[in-house]
């Protein structure tokens, strides 16, 4: 009886999740998360403060100002 009591919410959640996924248009969470992370990186790069110092580091190496 204890194992049924422990896993009831887990089993019920799976059943409800399967039903919802089959009968409603549920967005693909992986695509949504990837899109949000991509947009966050773009915003960060756009509004990033310049580094202090005499040179700027680029992909090619160190470029003096």
From TrEMBL:
A Pfam family name for this chain? DUF4535
Q: Which InterPro entries match?
A: STMP1 (IPR027854)
* Domain of life the protein comes from: Eukaryota
Name the UniProt record assigns to this protein: Short transmembrane mitochondrial protein 1-like
Species: Cicer arietinum (Chickpea)
Q: What is the lineage of its organism?
A: Eukaryota, Viridiplantae, Streptophyta, Embryophyta, Tracheophyta
């Amino acid at each position: 009886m204890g194992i049924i009591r422990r896993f009831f919410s887990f089993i019920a959640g799976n059943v409800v999740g399967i039903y919802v996924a089959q009968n409603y248009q549920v967005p693909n969470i992986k695509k949504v998360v990837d899109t949000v992370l991509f947009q966050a990186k773009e915003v960060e790069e756009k509004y990033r403060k310049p580094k202090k110092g005499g040179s700027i580091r680029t992909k090619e190496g160190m470029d003096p100002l």
